[in-house]
Amino acid sequence: VSSAPGAPAYVLPAAMPRPVPEADKLDAPYWEGTRAGELRVQRCRRCREFQWGPEWICHKCLAFEMEWVAVAPRGRIYSWERAWHPVHPALKDHGPYVVVLVELPEAGNVRMIGNLVGDPVQPVQIGAPVDAVFEPHDDATPPYTLVQWKRSTR
Amino acid sequence: VRNDRTIRGKVAVVGIGETAYYKHGRAPEPEFTLALKAILTACEDAGIDPRRVDGFASYSNDRNDPSRIAAALGLPELRFSNMQWGGGGGGGSAAVGNAAAAIAAGYADCVVVFRALAQGQFQRFGSAPPGGTVSGEAALTFPYGLISPAQRFAMRVMRFMHDHRVKQEAQRAIALASYHHAQANPRAVMHGRPLTAEAYDASRWIVEPFRLYDCCMENDGAAALVLVSAERARDTRRRPAYLLGVAQGSEYRNAARGHNAPTYASSSFTTVAPHLWEMSGLQPKDVSVVQSYENFTGGVLMSLVEHGFFAPEEANEFLTFANLIAPSGRLPLNTSGGNLAECYMHGLELQIEAVRQLRGESTSQVKDARVGLVISGPMVTPVSSMLLGTEDTL
To answer: What is the DSSP string of B165-220?
Structure first.
């Protein structure tokens, strides 16, 4: 994480694509949750299956009864990659960064994508425990909050 | 009980056509013109009057509408027009299967499968689309710099390599084989540009575990194949390549958003490949030569595993340069140079190379090639694969 003194600390530049909820509001509760510092996923009211990414129906029991629940903001690295080639203009001259796929054992092993906070050339271990770090972009229009991950000492 | 619900032996590829292949943005003609020229070349190769074509099939949202083509070519009638859902090259073999199904079902008599790409005239695949906001699945990935196809699929391959202790050298062997074959192929964009193991090792990372040479090119060009019934194929001038099986699809919840596919470290063929073998009545050992879509070498690696050529734990041992080259290798792979080194014709150049092998006309010919496997678009959904055979395999 690098930034000017006093400026918000982002893993990637502020000019990266900005997330907005879908037009049909399917994922709006997720993005509202990250603004509130909560990691929310879907859970079926009928069969209690966790579900992520979001969908209007439960893939297990086919009930249209999905609710949103806050889950423990911790998991372990399921896979990862280190990107070097800048595919977006905002990444030009930025250098490498790590993207992790994190599974959440306390939420049915659903997986979340984020960046790994810290040294971009650090060694990365599949299975390593990580904790969520909320990264608010308060000055964006509209404001949004990303969920990043840092190595845990657990 | 004889099962009629098979495409085996019912339809053949009787004509193939390509434009010259260009680096992306270098095509001197509009994309639509490239499409028309590839189609006309394929008809000429087949010895079939283009006015006899009555159907078209393509994939990946090809921009060249069959109705416009039919009008441009003055076709007496259009009887079949088909677009395979899904992106990437996953629809290459499925489009052939869809065309064949139309012929077998009597919807049309002479169907052309085609793909045309002029990247310089439109958006490239490997760069971010314009626009400042993203929603849906992209909202879960783009803000974190997981944007391009390479970035999307590196995550799957990384997990597969971890699970099965696959070494970088296995991916390297795939890249070296493609470049080796391209040196014999004057059509190849990378003809005259050999790749050494040292140059591969020194190349930059695009996204770990993919180096530059693990990634396909992007190109301009067009390719087409002409299909007719097996009965009509006997009257055409070229040696027909008979369809022995086609399968398409993907496994359980492959498209679960945000990289939540339960079978994650997969090329999406775990359920598709068994259907292909069952329909064809063949096994991996019957295959003479394989053309396997390289969006990224790791996808080829998993595709070959999922089609049963070796177990994941055998990948390091099996995937060597010597094993993958024609004519001497155990499993000659991508004998035209493929997406890495011939042309990224969205994989349709692989179907054409498979036909060439069965005709005995490849620039890296496998001796007595009788059965060719084509694997299309690993790691997307749906994916597809197909088997072609010479007449004596029927």
So the answer is: T--HHHHHHHHHHHHHHHHT-TT-TTTT----HHHHHHSPEEEETEEGGGB---EE
Q: What is the tens place of the pLDDT at every residue in B38-52?
A: 999 999 999 999 999
Using the predicted structure, report yes or no on whether residue B1 has a pLDDT greater than 50: no
- Grouping H, G, I as helix, E, B as strand and the rest as coil, residue B114 is strand
User: B106: which residues sit within 8 A by CB, 6+ positions away?
Assistant: none
B344 is catalytic: yes
ipTM of this complex prediction, to 2 decimal places: 0.96
Residue B256 Cα, gap to closest chain A Cα (Å): 6
Q: What pTM does this model have?
A: 0.96
Length of chain A: 154
Nearest to A122 by CA among A11, A3, A6, A4: A11
Please tell me which residue of chain A has the smallest CA distance to B125. A87
Interchain proximity A146–B143, CB inside 8 Å: yes
Q: Which residues contact B394 (CB under 8 A, 6 or more apart)?
A: B9, B230, B242
CA distance A26 to A24: 6
B134: chain A residues, CB-CB within 8 Å = 17-20
Model confidence at A2, pLDDT cuts 50, 70, 90, reads: very low
> DSSP character for B335?
T
Give the amino acid at B381: T
Report how far residue A51's alpha carbon sits from residue A67's, in angstroms, rounded to the nearest whole number. Answer: 10
**Do the bridges between strand A40-44 and strand A66-70 make them parallel or antiparallel, or are there none, so unpaired?**
antiparallel
Q: Which candidate from B131, B135, B144 shows the least CB-CB separation from A114?
A: B144
- For residue A88, pLDDT beyond 70: yes
Tell if the CB–CB gap between B128 and A89 is shorter than 8 Å: yes
Nearest-Cα residue of chain B relative to residue A110: B260
**Is the omega angle on the peptide bond into residue A8 within 30 degrees of 0, that is, cis?**
no
* CA atoms of B286 and B307, how far apart (whole Å): 12
